[in-house]
Design a protein that fits this description.
- The complex is a heterodimer of chains A (336) and B (475).
- With 336 residues, chain A is mainly alpha-helical.
- Chain A has 2 domains: 71 residues, no CATH class; 244 residues, Orthogonal Bundle (MetI-like fold).
- Helices cover 72% and strands 4% of the residues of chain A.
- Chain A has 14 helices and 2 strands; from the N terminus they run αββααααααααααααα.
- The relative contact order of chain B is 0.15.
- Chain B has 2 domains: 237 residues, 3-Layer(aba) Sandwich (D-Maltodextrin-Binding Protein, domain 2), CATH 3.40.190.10; 226 residues, D-Maltodextrin-Binding Protein, domain 2, CATH 3.40.190.10.
- With 475 residues, chain B is α/β, with parallel strands linked by helices.
- Classes of the chains: A mainly alpha (336), B alpha/beta (475).
- Chains A and B meet through α1, β1, β2 and α12 of A and α1, α5, β8, α19 and α20 of B.
């Protein structure tokens, strides 16, 4: 009797230790993420800014959806023609411009590095080289590119003018698409190594016997890629896409540091949504309320893109199979 | 091992970003409570500490020990720290210098943000006691309850007699007329140009002749064209188009935002837009960006003819970048100054004590020594060549012939600046200046490059101002 009691007691003890170990995370999370999150949602429905003239805080007073109205509707009354949506548009454009080539190159490299027939020598060295840009801080890379594309006497301009390709130096960082391209390129260059490593892990997770079987059946490399690698890579692809969409929508450091004013030169065309939110909240009239509302819009957009990606990448065969099983079960029941 | 190191790094970076991210939200929540506490505290402090200040001559050590905690002084570069150290050592107040914890934020671009955050936490160890302000945003703080009137610091009107009036107009609280900050420097502006280039390209031999060539903006542009032509494009009038900005800003007849919160664009700023466009399209400047590395390199080469600069600009910018330290080295000694097309004034640094200042009496003493003491300021000016905010000090030095400056080839810089300092008119200033000027800069770039016409640029500028300050009425 006594024995069984103590043993019972012991199991309970062990369980408690588990909670102790995970407690720090939840405490930190609650204080530093959960509460600010809830607070931000609250602020989004409040008027809260600083009157610069007297440097005095106004609010927070509840003002319903007024913040959202200024985000969705311009002063002239047209919808979506606001700084918020322009910033969101810039973010999406620059994200797409870096992500499309990034995933293609990463996929190609991942397949090459894992292919047992294409035996690349010094694979380790290549992987290090490819991953290297990711280790350098974004700030360093931004300053580097800022100097490279400087006008009128940056290295790139000097090279192009001295080589006789252009007569005049070109104002890269004062031109909308040139600046966007540079930012996209930096992001692409920094992150394709990371994506490649994730995809390589995904490909290595596919059973080698499947590749061998396909090869025995006489499939070409392209056919193996299309019909074996890609379908089995789907969960990893989904992870990469969603991860990149979230990261891309929060793009901040490169465009912030690459432009002289830090406001997304030229003319706010490289200002991302997070840069915009930060400017609202901490510069000018420090509009915490509107910044909170813009953050909520960003949240909804991120959620939307994630859900769309989940929907597109869903396993259609598995769903079909499930349906078929259900149908079969129903049919059996009906027969019974 | 490497992986472990990397994971530790990554996790600490993550934690850091989490910590940073939450700062804004929490700060906003605490702000109202902080304001109340801050406004109540100083009144009591000032009364109890004022007698102690009178007794400081006998027992400075005791005084320091009694309230012996650190005084946090915030600025954005090393200049104020160097001046404070010099002034306090000249006044034999090493004990005060020992108490000062000088914090150099390092970047005037983020300075306002940093100060705003610090002011929201009056109980923090590093809460500022004395803050340095630039002209472009000082009004935001002096018009608020976050700074103390200098009368609370034991500074009387008699201490201010030697100051240039405009340096007191700027830090005056618009609500009740009390003065909230002091400056040790005056900053009237002039056009600084290369004498050797002026002679070889324009045949100009004296500052008076030079002034005649640039006395109006039309003359200025004509001379700029002449310089470009005669030097075959090797030398340009200005380094950056932005160098024109301060001159035009100082000549606005109204501030960007008046006391009723109405935003107006002064017609002279349209003239400024056109001037920048002329310089850009006609290739009359080196197309650099003000304060960039290339711009800083300008004074040491023959690529730039001149700069619009003021008192501190002469020492801290042109002299520091001229590529030499005595006549014959670099362009040292090859510079002169003249008034230029318009009188103007540029910047300067003010000191103010915060509402929650731990020791207003000591803060007052420090400000008094650096900004009001004629003997100290005369010596500061003699040693550093600062144009100090003290008429007697500058007159003493000029009369003694100490204004003749070898960097300017012997020209008396005090004699040039003195009449300009008397005439400075600062009615163009408002608390919104820095942000609004930045926003205008963005649109002027677009306009000068020909990407937008003037109407669109102005409309976009106004829209951006409305976005940054929703409570303003835009006209």
């Amino acid at each position: 009797m006594a024995k069984s009691n103590t043993s019972k007691h012991k199991t309970v003890e062990y369980g408690r230790y588990g909670y102790y170990f995970i407690a720090p995370f939840f405490i930190v999370f609650a204080i530093f993420q959960l509460w600010p999150l809830i607070y931000t949602i609250g602020l989004a429905f409040c008027e809260n800014y600083y009157d610069t003239m007297w440097n005095a805080e106004v609010g927070p007073y509840f003002n319903g959806l007024a913040n959202f109205a200024t985000i969705f509707k311009s002063t002239e009354g047209t919808y979506f023609d606001t700084y918020t949506f322009r910033a969101l548009g810039n973010t999406l454009i620059m994200w797409f411009m870096n992500f499309a080539p990034q995933i293609l190159l990463a996929l190609l490299l991942a397949v090459w590095f894992t292919d047992t027939r294409v035996k690349i020598k010094a694979q380790g060295a290549y992987k290090v080289l490819v991953f290297m840009p990711n280790i350098i801080t974004a700030a360093t890379i931004s300053v580097l590119f800022y100097k490279l594309f400087d006008y009128p006497n940056g290295p790139i301009n000097q090279l192009l003018v001295n080589a006789g390709i252009w007569e005049q130096p070109y104002q890269f960082l004062a031109t909308k698409w040139a600046t966007r391209s540079i930012i996209s390129f930096i992001n692409f260059w920094m992150w394709y190594g990371n994506t490649m490593i994730v995809l390589t892990a995904g490909v290595l997770g596919i059973s080698p016997s499947l590749f061998e079987a396909a090869r025995v059946d006489g499939a070409t490399s392209w056919e193996i890629f299309k019909n074996v690698t890609l379908p089995l890579l789907r969960p990893i692809m989904l992870f990469t896409l969603v991860n990149s969409a979230i990261g891309g929508l929060q793009m901040y450091d490169i465009p912030k540091l690459l432009t002289t004013s830090g406001r997304g030169d030229p003319d706010f065309t490289t200002r991302t949504i997070t840069m915009y939110i930060r400017e609202l909240a901490f510069t000018g009239a420090r509009q915490m309320g509107k910044a909170g509302a813009a953050s909520l819009v960003l949240f909804v957009v991120t959620l939307f893109f994630s859900l769309v990606l989940f929907y597109i990448m869903r396993d259609k065969d598995a769903i079909k199979e499930k349906k078929a099983i259900k149908a079969a079960q129903k049919a059996r029941k009906g027969a019974n | 091992m490497k992986k472990k190191l990397l994971s530790v790094l990554l996790s600490s970076a993550m934690l850091a970003s989490v910590l940073v991210g939450c700062g804004g939200g929490d700060g906003a929540a605490q702000a109202p409570a902080a304001d109340n506490a801050a406004t109540e505290a100083p009144a009591a402090d000032a009364e109890t500490e004022a007698p102690a200040a009178d007794a400081e001559a006998e027992a400075p050590a005791d005084d320091a020990a009694a309230s012996g905690d650190k005084l946090y002084v915030y600025s954005w570069n090393t200049e104020l720290g160097e001046r404070l150290e010099l002034a306090l050592s000249l006044a034999n107040r090493q004990d005060l210098w020992d108490r000062i914890e000088y914090v150099n934020v390092g970047d005037s671009g983020i300075y306002q943000e940093r100060i705003d955050q610090l002011l929201q936490a009056p109980d923090a160890e590093d809460y500022p006691d004395i803050i340095a302000f630039e002209a472009a945003y000082i009004m935001k703080y002096t018009n608020s309850d976050q700074t103390l009137p200098i009368t609370d610091l034991g500074i009387t009107d008699a201490d201010l007699a030697e100051m240039y009036p405009y340096t007191l107009t700027i830090p005056t609280d618009k609500r009740n007329g009390s003065i909230k900050g002091l400056s040790w420097q005056a900053a009237p502006g002039a056009f600084m140009y290369r004498t050797d280039l002026a002679e070889s390209l324009l045949g100009v031999k004296s500052p008076e002749e030079m002034q005649a060539k640039i006395s109006t903006w039309d003359d200025f542009v004509a001379t700029a064209k002449e310089i470009k032509e005669k030097s075959n494009g090797e030398t340009k009038m200005l380094s950056s188009n932005g160098d024109l900005a301060e001159v035009f800003r100082s000549n606005m007849s109204n501030p960007w935002v008046d006391d009723n919160g109405v935003f107006r664009m002064d017609p002279i700023m349209e003239q400024y837009m056109d001037m920048v466009k002329t310089f850009e399209q006609e290739d009359l400047s080196c197309h650099t960006t003000t304060w960039s590395d290339e711009w800083n390199a300008g004074p040491s080469t023959d690529a730039v003819f001149g700069y619009f600069g003021c008192t501190w600009f002469l020492h801290w910018t042109i002299k520091a970048n001229c590529g030499g330290e005595k006549p014959g080295e670099g362009t040292y000694g090859l510079w002169n100054m003249c008034q230029g097309p318009m009188p103007y004034y540029w910047g300067g640094t003010w000191l103010g004590a915060t509402a929650g200042c731990s020791d207003p009496a000591a803060a007052g003493e420090i400000m008094k020594i650096l900004c009001c003491d004629t003997d100290v300021l005369t010596e500061v000016s003699r040693q550093t060549l600062d144009y100090v905010n003290n008429k007697t000090a500058m007159k003493t030095l000029s009369d003694a012939g100490e204004g003749a400056y070898d960097f300017l080839g012997g020209q008396d810089f005090i004699a040039v600046f003195a009449p300009l300092a008397e005439d400075v008119d600062v009615s163009f200033m408002s608390a919104y200046d820095q942000t609004i000027n930045d926003l205008l800069g963005t649109q002027i770039t677009e306009y000068s490059l020909g990407n937008k016409d003037k109407e669109t640029a102005i409309a976009d500028f106004k829209a951006a101002v409305a976005e940054a300050y929703p409570s303003l009425t835009i006209e």
